[in-house]
Amino acid sequence: MQKTIFLVLFSYLSLLYGDVQLKVLDLSNSHYEIGESMLEYEDTTAKMTLSEIRHLPSKDFIPLNKPVASHPFTNSAFWYQFKAINKEDKPLSRLIIFEPAWLDSVNVTVISSKGEVRTYQGGNIYPYSKRALDHYLINFEPLFEPGISTVYVQVKTRDPFIFAMSVMDKASFLAEQADASMYIGLVYGGIVAMLFYNLFLYFGVKARYYAHYVLFLVAFFAMNASYNGYTFMYLFPHWPTVQNWAQSTSIYFYVVTALLFARSFLNFVKYHHTLYIITTFLIFGIVGVAVLSAMIGGYHYHVMLSIISILLISVYLFGIALYSLLTGNHSARFFLLGTASGLIGAFITALTVMSYIPYTYLTYKANDIGMYIDVVLLSMALADRMKMTQEKRIIAEKEAKTDILTGLYNRRAYYEISHKEFNRLLRHNRCLSIIMFDIDHFKEINDTYGHDAGDNVLKAVAKIVKGVIREYDYAFRMGGDEFLVLLPETNEKQALFLAERIRKRVATKKFTDKDNTFFITASFGISQYNHIERSIETIVRRADKALYHVKESGRNRVKALDKFIRV
What is the tens place of the pLDDT at every residue in 213-270? Predict the structure, then answer.
């Protein structure tokens, strides 16, 4: 025991007063993103061996001085060195976890204070089984002998170079991952729920933009799952090459589906044919870049151009959404907000992975956060688009059934509503009455005061009728000066009272045309359903017959025809 304590103390003091002073990681605790405790060396040949690295002068290693290492796209290999102390008198196993999940090759060598060497290899070019823990992040679980160990880590990747390393005990890591897994499950579960919801909507309404949005969600899911390592974990554990190409290919797929969705959702075919052509050209252009970069440039250029593509297309989508909104396409509102969040997130993450802005967890995950917001806002955009479409359809249907001059229902609406009400009447054996009326000597009004005065009379009469009838009654202009009022749940006596109210208000209404003032009257015929009739037309004919009798006997009166008189 005393020998172990002396060894630990000696190693620690030699570290403090040696050529290179490092903060030694105490393996009794967990350490996150240990970049500030590491030295870094760039091997531009990417071929140096561990023996060559160990024989380099200490001055060639430079303190990283930041939690996470990041560099632009590079063909170099980077070596990192740090010290770790095991204060126990027996070996300790610790997890070493690496982010991001896309690193091609990570080689770890642990050299004990006695010179014992243990080497571990892993990364995305190796089978998934090389990992110590079944987890989407690259990880090893080396043994640390008592005393101070020196750790060398070699990292190579053809993807954006970000390198974060943490040293933890397994129990702490697994406890943290339980919360992280719940969050990931909620996010992915929400995306899958939106996917199926919009898929069902597509089958229901057959609108193409719903199908394109489903493709967009599939692409987003694939892209996010691939570069975060979930596809390697669940789909391609034995095919690391497939996993690597899936990362960049899914980005191209995402860009193409975003363009497809924008083109159909913003309805470029109808509103902006030029933008339709440009967007279609870009879709084929992105596909061409994806294929040619893979065939000619190889994986490195395939990845680089995919990131450039997502940045450029994000700018384009924001621009066309803003243009659509400014030119009167109100359905672009939420689309614009969604593309703005996606654009900002993509730019921040891209600048982070290319080392143009400092790495933080939020800047690194800004693309994910922006895309999540984008997905939610695009779903709101679809809901808003559906609401606007429904409102337009309701307005169109209402206009098709409404008399433009008076605002009452027209003859077309009469056929639909009257038969519906009559069928309900037969089912429930209730009562129903009909009032038919027209304006007395209406032709003379047109001839004397002009058609504008006649139109004003019709509008005034319609306003009187709407002010008298109940919410569940129906008033129709059947044509010319002829009106019909359909009164569910109304008997003859109630209909007579209602018709008399309308007649009096019409008779006392004063009309002014230029310097002329005049009054009008109207004649009313009423009929009530007699429980024998089997069509609405027979009730209407009896009301029309009653109206005929009123006209024959002097006009400006209300008359009900006996409900058992056959006509």
Answer: 889 889 989 998 998 999 999 999 999 999 999 999 999 999 999 999 899 988 888 8
Sign of CA dihedral 342, 163, 351, 311: negative
DSSP string computed for 498-562: HHHHHHHHHHT-EEEETTEEEE--EEEEEEE--SS--SHHHHHHHHHHHHHHHHHTTSS-EEE--
Planar angle of CA 268, 292, 350, nearest 5 degrees? 70
**Phi and psi of 110, rounded to 5°?**
-110, 120
366-374 long-range contacts, Cβ below 8 Å, gap at least 24?
368/224, 369/345, 370/341, 370/342, 370/343, 370/344, 370/345, 370/346, 371/220, 371/224, 371/342, 371/345, 371/346, 372/187, 373/338, 373/341, 373/342, 373/345, 374/338, 374/339, 374/341, 374/342, 374/345
Beta-bridged to residue 436, according to DSSP, are: 484, 525
pLDDT in tens, 84-97: 999 999 999 999 99
Please state the pTM of the whole predicted model.
0.71
DSSP state of 295: I
Cis peptide before 240 (omega within 30 of 0): no
Q: Which two tokens stand for residue 205?
A: 């309404």
Work out the number of other CB atoms within 10 angstroms of the CB of residue 206: 9
Encode pLDDT of 156-170 as tens digits: 999 989 899 999 999
Whole-number Å distance between alpha carbons of 488 and 465: 16
Give, rounded to a whole angstrom, the gap between the first and last alpha carbons of the chain: 120
**How far is the CA of 343 from the CAs of 174, 194, 258, 373, 451, in angstroms?**
34, 21, 12, 11, 60
Contact yes or no for 145/177 (Cβ under 8 A): no
Pairing of strands 77-86, 25-26: parallel
CA distance 179 to 414: 62
Dihedral, CA atoms, 254, 259, 260, 262, nearest 10 degrees?
A: 120
Buried b (16+ CB within 10 A) or exposed e, 492-505: beebbebbebbbeb
Inter-residue contact 202 to 217 (CB < 8 Å): no
Residue 109: DSSP 8-state: E
User: Is the Cβ–Cβ distance between 251 and 305 less than 8 Å?
Assistant: no
H or E stretch covering 43: strand 39-43
